[in-house]
Description:
The structure is a homodimer. Chain A is an alpha/beta fold. Chain A contains ten helices and nine strands. The radius of gyration of chain A is 17 Å and the shape is globular.
Amino acid sequence: MTTRPWSIEECVTNYSGAGIKGITVWRNVLDNKNLEDVRNLLNDFNLEVVSLARGGFFPSTNPQKRSVAIDDNLLAIEQAASIGAPLIVLVCGADGGQSLEKSREQIAEGIIRILPAAQGAGVRLAIEPLHPMYAGDRSAINTICQANDMAEMINSEMVGVAVDVYHLWWDPDLKNEIHRCGKHNNLFAFHICDWNVPTTDFLNDRGLMGDGCINVPQIRSWVEESGFTGYHEVEIFSDKYWATDQKAYLERIKNAYLTKT
Amino acid sequence: MTTRPWSIEECVTNYSGAGIKGITVWRNVLDNKNLEDVRNLLNDFNLEVVSLARGGFFPSTNPQKRSVAIDDNLLAIEQAASIGAPLIVLVCGADGGQSLEKSREQIAEGIIRILPAAQGAGVRLAIEPLHPMYAGDRSAINTICQANDMAEMINSEMVGVAVDVYHLWWDPDLKNEIHRCGKHNNLFAFHICDWNVPTTDFLNDRGLMGDGCINVPQIRSWVEESGFTGYHEVEIFSDKYWATDQKAYLERIKNAYLTKT
C-alpha cells in the first residue's frame, strides 16, 4: 500500500531490486489473481511475506454484517495461507451506532470465531490498535493497552498485537505497554512512518520517517528491548507521495529508514 | 465560535432572545472592541460569561516564543477580568519539534508563571485535554488523566480541567477520570457536541449532539455525578453548520440539547 500506484508485480520486482527482503501484501492487489502465481512471484524474487493486510472489521449493529465479516476473515486466512503469509493484520472495526464496549465485545467474539481456522492454517492474527481518531468507524481498539488486554484475554499463541507508530506515538503509556506486549510474546508486527504537522487528511497524509514529529528511533528501541526481531515495515498512506515517481520514492524511503529510524 | 458567522452583538442578542443564559467569548471577537462596552452588552442582555477562550499555547522550542505566549496569556487574564469572565480555557499547545514530555513541562511552567496574575484577577484556568489527533501541534495534553495529573500537581484552587466530549469520548478511563476530576474539585467546564462518522476535517467537522457516535447523556451523567453544576456548553466548529442560517441553527442546537444530551 505504501507504493499504491504499483501492481503486485511492480512492487515485487522493484522492492527486490532495491534490496528489500520482505513485503506485506494488501488484499486489494489479490483481486482477480491466481494466488499460486502470486506466491510463485514472491518466491522467485525472494521476498518474504510479512503479513496479509487486512482482516477485521468485526463489529456491526447488524448481525448479518457480523456474519459476513466472519466469512471474509475466513477467506483472508485462506488467502494468507495461499500466498505464504504467516500473519494477518486485523483492523478490528467499530460501529458508531453502538458503544465502543459493545464493538470490543464483538471484536473479541469475531477473533475467537476465526481462531480455529487460523490455527489450522498456521496463520497468526495481529490486533492493530488504531489511533483514537478512528474510534468512530475503523477500530474500537485505540490503545496498545486495549490490544494487550484483548490478546492476553484470548490467550492463544496465534493472537498478538501490531504496533504502528502512527497510531500509538502520543500514548503516555507506550513504553510500558510495548514492554508488556513483548513480555507476553504478543509483539507480532512493527509498522513505521511519521505524523505530519499539520496533518490534513484522516487517512492519506502520513509522513515519511523524519517528515513529522514521531520519535521513531525511541519507539524502535522499546520494540527491540521487548525482544522483537521481525521486519520494520514502512507503511505510509500518502496522496502526496503516491503522486510522485515511485522508484525515486522507494529510494527516499530506504534513505529515511537508514537515517531516521 | 459555535455561531462563528455572527458578531458578538449578534451572538448576544440572538442567544438572549433564544433563552440561553450563558456564553463563552472567544478572543477573536474582542479585536478592536472596547471591553467595557462588551461587558455592558453582556450585562444588558443578562448573559453570564462562562469563560474566555482561549489561553495556552505555551510550548515552543524557541524561548522567545514561549515568552510571547506568557505575555499573551497575561493579556487574556486582563481581558477575562475586563469582560467578567471567571475562567479561561487553556488549549495548552505542543511543538512537534520536541517531545510531548518536554511540551508538557513547558505547559506546567507556563501555567505556574501566569498563576499569580490569574489569582490577582480572580480568573480561574481550565486545562483542556485535546484529542490525540492534536498532539502534534495543538496540545501535548491528550487525556483527562494527564490534565488531572497536571492540575493536581499544580494544586491551586485556580487551576482545573475542561471536559469536552469531542476530545475525550473514546477514552476507556473516562468515567473514572471524570470522577477523579470532580473529587479534586477540578471540574471547571463541560463542553458538548458530537463526533461525525466519518469525520472529514481535523478542525471544523464537529457534529451537533445526535449527529454522531458520542454518548453525550452518559458522559453528562458522569459529569453530574462528579458534582458539576455549571453550564453545558455547546461548542461546535462546523463549516457545514456555519454555512447555514444561524438563527435556524440556534433552534436546532436548542432542540438537540433538549432531546439528545
